[in-house]
Design goal:
With 579 residues, the chain is mainly beta. The chain folds into 5 domains: 2-26 and 366-472, Sandwich (Immunoglobulin-like), CATH 2.60.40; 33-129, Immunoglobulin-like (Sandwich); 131-246, Carboxypeptidase-like, regulatory domain (Immunoglobulin-like, Sandwich); 254-337, Immunoglobulin-like, CATH 2.60.40; 475-578, Immunoglobulin-like, CATH 2.60.40.1120. Helices cover 5% and strands 48% of the residues. It contains 3 helices and 44 strands. The strands form 10 sheets. Strands 1, 2, 5, 7, 9 and 10 form a 6-stranded mixed beta sheet that branches. Strands 20, 21, 22, 24 and 26 form a 5-stranded antiparallel beta sheet that branches. Strands 31-28-36-33-34 form a 5-stranded mixed beta sheet, with no helix packed on it. A hairpin with a 2-residue loop joins β1 (33-41) and β2.
Length: 579
């Protein structure tokens, strides 16, 4: 379910950003910091290497970075291999060399650095070496070149992460696609064994907005099962050529079409947004039911979007065999403060060996929630307009099916909002801001009375008098982890999580704050709304069969006035859960 929720968040933030813009009052400037270091190639200082410091982004800041060319800061190494990044606002950054033909000599190609106000982070060094190359040609079933086909790599060596060329953007990297000859050439690869495939988009956004035929994922040397793929061995400064893939003729796909209708009047719904997503059939059910327990793949992510015409009709081409779920919402969900006006019954269907026609998606008039958003802060100058464009998402969770429906809207300049098209049930809320200042939900009031655990809405009900009180998310938890009862293997991951206590919000986006613990045992969790949090540190300890998860917890209160210091002991000798 998390994948589908993540898609809804990304699309909501993206489309809302394009639909609405509001000026942001200038913020108080803080003294910036600096990052310095040295870069060596094969042990010698190297000139002309670009170093990039990119701020770590939560899902609701992805679009902000897309439209802000200064979101990443750059510097170039001098003749001694030294670089200096200056004028960096305080915060957490991912620092990496941007040298497409080179690779990091270490397992990690980037370094996470926390820059303090007015301070300098020194000795952020990188050791580089020449990377390897994989090249080949992609053709269709008739031997014709496939242009613009994305090629995927999977590194088979467990000792190293699958690091490719320096930085691959949200919408992919050009070198991973074939040219007008159907030829691809991927360079700057770490030495190791790779499985090469084509026919499957590796990022969600490419998959959603692709308008061409979907293909069956095919692995080199032309098989559809990964277990039968032939790994390609890459060595430093070498080229593995002739890694060609030809698609079979059984990947043309089928057409699915139908209409969106009002459930009562049967009138067609024009300009409805329709999406389908792949799902897994519940093998324990006699009828066609879909489970949402989809694991960590892209199942549940939308396979495509379209809108209905004036007759309520929709059509998708190139849909491959499989089980799917079709859903609909109104364009108004993303285009203004009114939000959607209806919710739809999802339609479950299966594509086998023919087109699927005459599907009907029935929509119902949803419940509505109206109210006002206010800011509660110790800073008398803190007001709503300091948070820029503010967006609100309401989610209704169905605990029986683990599915959810949502309503979205943009908060007006005066703080008023209306969420429509809500399915009956318990509604919880989430906020998004395009500003650097991040508000969090402090409490919820209805007609002056505080409400715990969300708002219960009935069919066609119009809920009035709601007050959503927000507070600046400026709280910080600074922690240190001490390992006892053994030692972690080199490269073992340790993760810290801050979970709000007695919080009924679903785990979406960055509601739960997760960060990596550094090799020195330090971690920093930022942008927290005032409240009580359970801080949990977790790692995995290898054993003969699988691994054992070890964790430790501590409860703290965050006020936002000053960082909360936490010391946590992770006892590796203690009992943990088997994976």
């Amino acid at each position: 379910m998390r994948k589908l929720k993540s898609a809804a968040i990304i699309l909501f933030v993206l489309l809302s950003a394009l639909a609405y813009d509001r000026p942001v009052r200038a913020q108080t400037q803080k003294e910036p910091g600096t990052i310095t270091g040295r870069v060596k190639l094969e042990g010698k200082p190297v000139k002309g290497i670009t170093i990039t410091a990119a701020p770590e982004l939560s899902p609701d800041r992805i679009v902000e970075a897309m439209f802000n060319s200064s979101a990443s800061m750059k510097a170039v190494t001098d003749s001694e291999g030294v670089y200096r990044l200056e004028g960096i606002p305080a915060g957490k950054y991912r620092v990496a060399p941007s040298a497409p033909a080179l690779v990091s000599a270490d397992a990690n190609s980037s370094t996470e650095i926390t820059v303090s106000e007015g301070a300098t982070a020194e000795n952020v060094d990188f050791a580089l070496s020449l990377g390897g190359v994989i090249t080949g040609k992609i053709t269709d079933s008739e031997g014709q070149p496939v242009i613009g086909e994305r090629v995927s790599l999977k590194q088979m060596d467990a000792s190293r992460p699958a690091t490719g060329p320096s930085i691959v953007g949200m919408f992919g990297n050009r070198m991973y696609a074939t040219d007008d000859r159907g030829v691809y050439r991927i360079f700057g690869l770490q030495p190791g064994r790779y499985v090469v495939s084509a026919g499957k988009d590796s990022d969600a956004m490419s998959n959603i907005f692709s308008q061409r035929a979907k293909r069956v994922q095919t692995f080199y040397p032309g098989v559809t099962e990964e277990s039968k793929a032939k790994p390609i061995v890459v060595t430093a400064a070498s080229e593995a050529a002739g890694v060609d893939i030809q698609f079979s003729g059984a990947d043309k796909g089928f057409v699915i079409s139908g209409r969106v209708l009002d459930s009562e009047s049967k009138a067609p719904i024009a300009n409805a947004m329709v999406a389908y997503s792949k799902a897994i059939k519940d093998s324990t059910a006699d009828d066609l039911r879909i489970t949402t327990d989809t694991g960590n793949d892209l199942t549940g992510m939308p396979g495509g979007f379209t809108t209905t015409n004036d007759k309520g009709e929709f059509r998708f081409a190139f849909v491959l065999p499989g089980n799917y779920k079709m859903e609909a919402t109104s364009i108004g969900a993303f285009a203004g403060s009114g939000g959607s006006q209806f919710y739809a019954d999802p339609v479950l269907f299966e594509v086998e060996s023919a087109n699927v026609e005459k599907l009907e998606i029935k929509v119902h008039r949803g419940a509505g929630i109206s109210g006002v958003v206010v800011i509660e802060s110790a800073d008398p100058q803190d007001s709503l307009d300091r948070y820029g464009q503010l967006m609100l998402m309401a989610m209704v969770i169905d605990p029986s099916s683990k599915s959810f429906s949502s309503g979205n809207c943009i908060v007006g300049p005066d703080g008023t909002f209306r969420l429509g098209g809500l399915k009956p049930g318990k509604v919880t809320f989430r906020t998004f801001s395009m500003s650097a200042r991040k508000p969090g939900i402090l409490r919820l009031e209805r007609n002056g009375v505080e409400v715990q655990g969300g708002i219960e809405v009935q069919p066609n009900e119009e809920v009035l008098g709601l007050r959503l009180i927000l507070a600046p998310s400026n709280g910080v938890i600074r922690g240190r982890v001490t390992i006892q009862g053994g030692s972690l293997p080199k490269g073992a991951e340790v993760v810290a999580l801050a979970r709000p206590v007695n919080n009924d919000q679903p785990d979406i986006g960055d509601t739960y704050r997760r960060v990596d613990v550094s090799s020195t045992g330090a971690f920093l969790i930022e942008n927290l709304t005032p409240g009580t949090y359970e801080v949990q540190v977790t790692s995995s300890v290898p054993r003969q069969s699988g691994s054992r998860s070890v964790s430790s917890k501590q409860t703290v209160t965050v006020t936002g006035s000053s960082p909360v210091e936490v010391d946590i002991v992770l006892d590796l000798s203690g009992k943990g859960s088997d994976k």
